[in-house]
Amino acid sequence: MTAPHASCSVFLIKKIIIGGVKVDNIVTVGGHINASINFAMQQNYVPVIRSLVVNNNSEEALENIGLKITFEPEFAKEFTYHIGSIPAKSSAEISPVRISTNTDLLFSLTEKMVGNITIEVLQNGENIFTYQNTIELLACDQWSGLNIMPEMIAAFVTPNHPALSPVIHDASTFLKKWKGDPSFTGYQTNNPNNVKLQMAAIFAALVQQKIVYNDPPASYEIIGQRIRLPHKVLKQKMGTCLDLAVLYAACLEAVGLHPLLFFMTGHAFCGCWLENETFADCCVDDVSAIEKRIAENAEEMLLVECTDFVDSNVHDVERFDHAMKHGKDHISNMEFQCVIDIIRTRGSGIRPIPLRPEQTYSGLQLAEESDKPKEMLAPSELNSSLLGKVAEGNDKPVTKMRIWERKLLDFSLRNSLLNFRVTKNTMQLMTADLGKLEDELASGSDFRIMEIPTEWTVSTRDAKIFAIENEKDLVTNIAENEFKNNRIRTFLNEADLDTALKSLYRSAKVSMEENGSNTLFLALGLLRWYESDLSEKPRYAPLVLIPIDIVRNTRNKGYIIRSRQEETQINVTLLEYLRQDHGISITGLDPLPLDEHGIDLPLVFNTIRQAVMGKKRWNIEEYAFIGLFSFSQFVMWNDLRNRSEEISQNKVVSSLMAGSLTYAPEDISITPENIDSDLDLENMAVPMSADSSQLAAIAAAGSGQSFVLHGPPGTGKSQTITNMIANALYNDKSVLFVAEKMAALNVVQKRLANLGLDPFCLELHSNKTNKTTVLAELDKALEVGKIKSPEEYSAEAARLKAQKAQLNDTITALHEKRNCGVTLYEAISAYERSISEKDKISVSKDIFTNIAKETLDRFSDLVHRYSIAIAETGDFADFPLKDIGITSYSMEQRDKFHTEAADLAQKATASSQCAQTLAQAYSYSGDLDKTAVKMLSHIYKASTADGELLDGLLCCTPHYDITLQKIKDTLAIGKEYTALCTDILSHFEKSIFDLPASESKMLYKQAEQSWFLPKAMKLGKLVKSLKLHAKDPASVTKANLGEILDKLCTISEKKDFLRSLPSDVTALLTGIYMNEQTDWNALEKAVSKTDSIMNAIKQKAGADPAQMAQTIGKANCTSEGQALSSFLEKLSAFEDSFSANMTAIEASADWLGLSAEKLNTYAENADKLRYAAQFNSVDKELSDNGLSGVSESYRTGNVDSENVEKAFSCTLNYQLALMIINSDKRLSQFSSNSANDLITQFKDTLDKFSRLTIQELLARLSAKIPAQGSACASTSEMGILKRAIKSNGRMMSLRSLFDKIPNLLRKLCPCMLMSPISVAQYIDPSFPKFDLVIFDEASQLPTAEAAGTIARGENVVIVGDPKQLPPTNFFSSNRIDEENSEKEDLESLLDDCLAISMPQQYLKWHYRSRHESLIAYSNMKYYDNKLLTFPSHNDLISKVSIIHPEGHYDKGRTKQNKAEARAVVDEIIRRMSDEKLRNDSIGVVTFSSVQQNLIDDMLCEEWANHPELEELDRKSPEPVFIKNLENVQGDERDVILFSVGYGPDEKGQVSMNFGPLNRDGGWRRLNVAISRARKAMIVYSVLRPEQIDLSRTRSEGVAGLKGFLEFAERGKLAVTAHSTTKSTSDSTVTECIAKAIKELGYGVKCNIGSSEFKVDIGIIDPDNEKEYLLGILLDGENTLHSSTAQDRFILQPSVLNGLGWNILRVWTLDWFDDKDRVLGNIKAAIDSAPKHEAETAPPSKPAVYSTSQFEREEASALTSAFAQPYVTADIGIMGTSDDFYKPENKQKIRETAEKIIAAEAPISEKLFMRKVFTAWGITRSGSRVESVFADAAQGVSPFATADENRVFLWKEGQSPESYSIYRTSDDTNKRSMEDIPSEEIINAVKEVLCQQISLSETDLVRETAKKFGYTRAVGITESVISYTLKKALTAGLIKKSESGNISAK
Asked: What residues have CB less than 8 Å from 1885, skipping those under 6 apart?
């Protein structure tokens, strides 16, 4: 079939883009017109025209556009459509195009004809465009084939046709006969057997019809055919296979079943669903979808060969069952095209075509009467036992153990458990029933394996899984018969079978012996699977694996197989692979489901079949194979799988499984701090020097702890592990040391050998370990002999302990906290700091006697506060706010103070001018002091009052008071006068005053004294006379007459008085005084005003009122007066608020000016208001606390703010120091000479003790070795070992040897050094447990690989650094794009152990870097400066430098940085060429493997030019290495050259992608890379730190790189700027000594170093300012932080000496006692210090302890592995040969070529072209093909090499010179030898020579050919290899001896 069918219908459609001829193609029409139409399509609404688009190509809009479509003949009605307007350059779409077809015409067509369609575009009714096309009008019964809507076949399935009724009727009679019920029940009963019966009944009824078969036309299924509709077949009694299938399908559908029509190439038949089901699509072309549904006993559908119901001479009563078998066989034997699901098509709207209306049917004539109906038996019953049944999800729970197992699985196609291939180690069996075979094996039966039977005639093809379906019956017959006799046949002849079984037998035996694991299995069932939907190559994976043994049957010289009676396994690799890579989760199969005999195999297969139901082409093949199934980590996987129970018993493993500690770890009691006091030296062996952090770890391991040991770079991990092993061995413990990398094992092994421990340590890193070497090692252990234990060991240990205690005592006493809360060191430091202020403050000594810390703290706090206060007040006299007396303070107050003072200062200045103006105006000429200013203000205030100024009065200075009194009296009388007049006038007219008041008064008195009548008359008269003047006469009565007259008399008297005022007074009141007419208010105001002015003038002594009187009145100074008054008021308020005392300046002549200044000062110093308040407060507090001496000293000027604290501290600390020394013997008896001597003794004792320790250790170990000489029983462990050594282990594997001598092995070699895989391989879990397991580089080891090893020990120490590389697979494949890789780090053992909170220990001392700058960045960035690093004598400069070569990063192409690579290589050559520099070893670290390869290639080229340098490098102990971030961990060199590689591209753009650095753990990679150097690091980077934009990436690694590049550019400044080193503000004795040295004229630096460890003082060399001449170590803080005496007095000085320092020790007590003597010693040390060489000498090599008995052997060289599998590019079919020439495919061709080069280079040009051509279906090459290809693939390969006439293409990054592998292929893609480059063949030759040392040329050619899979070397194979050998001999890569044998160079 040419095209697969999708879920929707497939139409063959012509897409038309039509261009017209009129109006210059203004209009075009496009759209979809069907190629053909018929009645069936029309009935099912298949449109003639799917859509039309009318395009306006003009620049203007088209109006009034219409469309007309006409048809000829008229198979459809004319179609018109009004479009209207189409905008310019736009289009109008008509969809759907509703065309009404002529049903009658289409129905009546009996033959195909061609019709026309005309499309016209009209504008305003006129035609502007015409298009014509043809369409095929098919006959009514024509089916268009599989290419055009294959599902249209369903239209011809007519279940409702009356012609079917008789058939159905017939069928029902069969049903009744078979099951007693004639009813067709469809699927109602849910019983597949019922469905089968109904199908069989219809089949039987059709048999009765005696239909004759005719052949269909050729290729009918593709091009289509005329279909005889079911009624026609019944009428005409004939039909093709398709006609018959359609008839049967129609009958099935008629009775409610779901028929299926199957199309094979050249054939069609019918099928039916057994359950109420349909496919998801109408048309299905995946044969596996059928295969999986017709599996035996799980059938979901039945297939029926319809030609089996045609008329036949031979009557077959079981015809239906046979038809079913034939139908099923077709699926495997014929080429499947597709299946049409009839009921599903109905859902898509495809209905049966209707009957022709003119014909009617009265039923069919049945067979003639004479013909009896043919007898048919009921069909056999279905066994649906497996239908829909899957294994229940009873999987073992997914525990951590299961996850580990999964992680060890190998998902590569190399694994035969996923990609099973037929090889010499596999064998296919002839089987009939796999289930029975499994049952028989499970019951313990043996089966003899036999050769191919003689009756078998099928050609047996090599290396293929036999396609045995065609001969299935034959195979089944043979297999069943043989099975009964317990024989199993294979497909191999006798000779091949014998060879194959022998090979299998031997391989299985070796695997069992070497690895302890069975790898021989009987595989039942294979899953056929594909890597993707596009993959063409099927892969096969075994399903059920039965562990078997092959047993030689000596009696009849054959082989039998039997079950090992071990657990039968499901292929877990496959299940896990399906889960992870295909998302198929299959449960219920692990463990396998059982039936009564064994495994329920059919259920297993059905479960898997159901799970892969949705995968196209996938299915189960029920084959049986015997084979070896294993993979690289199989041994470890097997270990976990089969011994999980045992392994999980281990406490650490169970904790890792639980995710938290399942045991309670003991507290690690030994810490670095208490080692010296708590450690028992006699019970501990530490033969190599160890610092306190290492000792703590060794002690913890020795005491049976399990913990994680953090070992940052260069902290002596290997040395610690060596000590740990030695200590464990010393304490009679066994140790298993495990490291994945051989290098890590070697380092420790070498150190153990240096201690003489090598005979007791057995190294078994690889599974290829040489048996002879191991036996030789064991022999060496046997020969050790006894070593004597040193007698003085205990005494020396005691002596060492005493010396430690004595040395520590001085330090302890010096730094011990006393009752007063300070140490002696602190007291002396404080005294030294303040010594310049001695005796300045005297305080009673009694205060300090037994002083408590609290009191001391209070005093210090008080003096400190006082110093803070006076620090601001300074010299009290000069304190600007000393006049301010407040004691409390707030910020609001300060702000108010500032504002008011500033404002007043301004006003004061302004007021000064005002005052002068006023003084001038008031004729005042005296000083303007405060009184004068106040006077002027008051004058002004007074002068502003109402009233005139009586200036005359002011002039009466001598008699002023008298005169004023007179005026005031007059004023009082005048006021009374006016008041009386006002009173009178309120009742009387003015004329009343003309009345003679005194006379009337007389008359009144007289009348009063008269008697009654005259009195009345007289009074009446008077009343009358008064009434004349009254306003209301009635108001005057006799009663009030006297009162009125009294008032009138008084008025008269006062008037007289006022008129008689003396002239001297009236003269003063000129203008105001007018006798009784005076305005008394005006006069009062004038008097008041004048008096106020006079009072103001009187304030100022010396002011002359008379002088001023003249001008005051005239003066007009309103604004000045106001301003001055306001100022004075505010000033007064300010003084009150702030207790300001400004009296000092009040008498000043320029008071306002000075006030302005003072106020300005206040304002400017407002911020000091706080200090003024503070000072006032603290000053009082001091006195209250009895420290008035401090206050007095300050006030008298003895101390000031600077030294008051110092002076107090000096007095205080001197007294405290004397008090402490006198009370402590350790201090009072100290002598520096004795201390220095004790250090020397201590060092000697240590060295001696170390030697004794080794001797004691060897003595203890040698004591365990059994004595030699006596004969041994052959079965004893010693006998077995001796025999093995003697026979060189013949017939015995190492594992079986180890299994046989567990106790002896433990005595001989209590320490074993292994890799995780060799542990699983050689050490059975039943082997006695090791006391201690140590893992190195645990951060690189996946937990899954470690679990089995951990379980082999009681306790485990996990050594690693979580800040270094985790296990990774980043560069594991060449095809990974490093820039875009998202592969994640794997979990490591270290991470998992930390996650469960295992106890932790830390190694803190860093020794690797010979210059501190090399580790400084790493320490700060990643270790929080917790690493103790040592500064070197040239610490003033950085040894990390950066070079920026001119160049760019070739992003997107080669990913190389050639500029950096060139610079790196040039530097290597420069250094190697320099005699001095070449002594420093070199390492190169790159960020990517591409850059690594580039530098490697470039260096190889340079080596070629300088072979003498290469030779030097090769011979050096540390040759140059070139590594990338991923594989450099564990390596170190003197000088590291670091190529960043990444950077700006050609355009200068910088991507923030830095390969592995961008990933989550990227920073850990950086940390590893930048901590590899011992002496110097040079960074080569075209990238500058400022080009890294951290806003574009969140990666910690990239941020770290930016920081590192900055550090490299700026040296250590960049780090120390933010480093967290402790620096106290208080200087100590250190600084005091430094100061004194400085005064001697030397440059000095203190606390040198960027970590917690410091050299206290460094004296800079005057002749070389980059180096220190002398380093001084004190017994201060730095010494206190060192934990042990050995740290303090031995290790640290010795490391510093090694780094080039001259060291002098100075003691604090010495300095306190006699400074001059100490300074003299320092001066002498400086003078005698040797000058440094340019480079420091390397540290001395450690002593090697060995005796003549312990001679060490060279480690046997391990052969390197050259072979790798040949990786084929996965390109598939790219197109047809026609497509190849299309220009648009040029890029596709190039991409294919690039893909092949990327995967397969180096590749021969011929093979390369062949592969590309094959992808396009081109089988033969030619010049045209080759030119197209050459054009497309130009430059795909950067370079080529030639071998004779054979050309080979290489890819970027490869180098023929450094190409170091050869590639092997399996038989499916084996290369011809002429397609293999000589470089690859040479590598295979090298491997042969490595393995076999020396061979003749003929043998070498043959062995080399074998490497490439050729069993014989003839013809082209021989000639190519021979040519290669000549080439290699010429190049000097191999050599030929005189005998003609060839060997490696």
From this structure: 1900, 1904, 1921, 1924, 1925, 1928, 1934
Residues 139/41, Cβ–Cβ less than 8 Å? no
Q: How far is CA 1273 from the centre of its chain?
A: 62
Distance from C-alpha of 339 to C-alpha of 1355, rounded to nearest angstrom: 65
Give the burial string for 1434-1445 (b: 16+ CB within 10 Å, else e).
bbbebbbebbbb
Tell me the residue length of the chain. Answer: 1945
Task: Write down the pLDDT at residue 6.
Answer: 32
- Overall pTM > 0.90: no
Residue range 1208-1241, pLDDT digits in tens: 888 888 888 888 888 888 888 888 888 889 889 9
State the DSSP code for 789.
Answer: P
The predicted structure's pLDDT at residue 1224: 84
> Which residues does residue 1354 pair with via DSSP β-bridges, in sequence order?
none
Element (H, E) at 226: strand 225-226
Q: What are phi and psi of 1196, to 5 degrees?
A: -85, -5
Helix (H, G, I), strand (E, B) or coil at 1592: helix
Distance (Å, whole) CA 339 – CA 286: 9
Mean pLDDT throughout 1241-1266? 86
DSSP letter for each residue of 549-608? EEEEETTTTEEEEEE-SSPPEE-HHHHHHHHHHH-----S-SSPPB-SSSB-HHHHHHHH
Cα separation, 815 vs 826, whole angstroms: 8
Contacts of 1099 (CB under 8 A, 6+ apart): 931, 934, 935, 938
The residue among 1405, 1400, 1687 whose CA lies nearest residue 668 is: 1400
CA torsion sign for 742, 745, 750, 756 is negative
**DSSP string of 1087-1136, one letter each residue:** HHHHHHHHHHHHHSTT--HHHHHHHHTT---HHHHHHHHHHHHHHHHHHH
Please classify residue 797 by burial: count the beta carbons closer than 10 Å to its beta carbon, then call 0-12 exposed, 13-18 middle and 19+ buried. Answer: buried
Who's near 959: CB < 8 A, 6+ residues apart?
A: none
For residue 1111, give Cα distances in angstroms to 225, 941, 943, 1117: 142, 15, 11, 11
Helix (H) or strand (E) holding 1030: none
CA-based radius of gyration for the chain:
58
Tokens describing residue 583: 């998302």
* Residue whose token pair is 């501290």: 1209
pLDDT at 111: 81
Q: Name the pLDDT band for 957 (thresholds 50, 70, 90).
A: low
∠ CA 245-249-251, nearest 5°, is 120
Distance CA 12, CA 150 (A): 11
Judge residue 1293's burial from the number of C-beta atoms within 10 Å of its C-beta, 0-12 exposed, 13-18 middle, 19 or more buried.
buried
For residue 1106, the model assigns a pLDDT of 66
Interior/surface letters 1454-1491, b for 16+ CB within 10 angstroms, e for the rest: bbbbbbbbbbbbebbbebbeeeeebebbbbbbbbbbbb
DSSP readout, 930-949? HHHHHHHHHHHHHHTSSS--
Residue-wise pLDDT tens digits, 1425-1442: 888 888 888 877 888 889
Q: What residues form DSSP beta bridges with 273?
A: 301
d(CA 1229, CA 1232): 10
What is the rounded distance in angstroms from the CA atom of residue 1648 to the CA atom of residue 1655? 5
Helix, strand, coil percentages (3-state) for the chain, rounded to 5, are 45, 15, 40
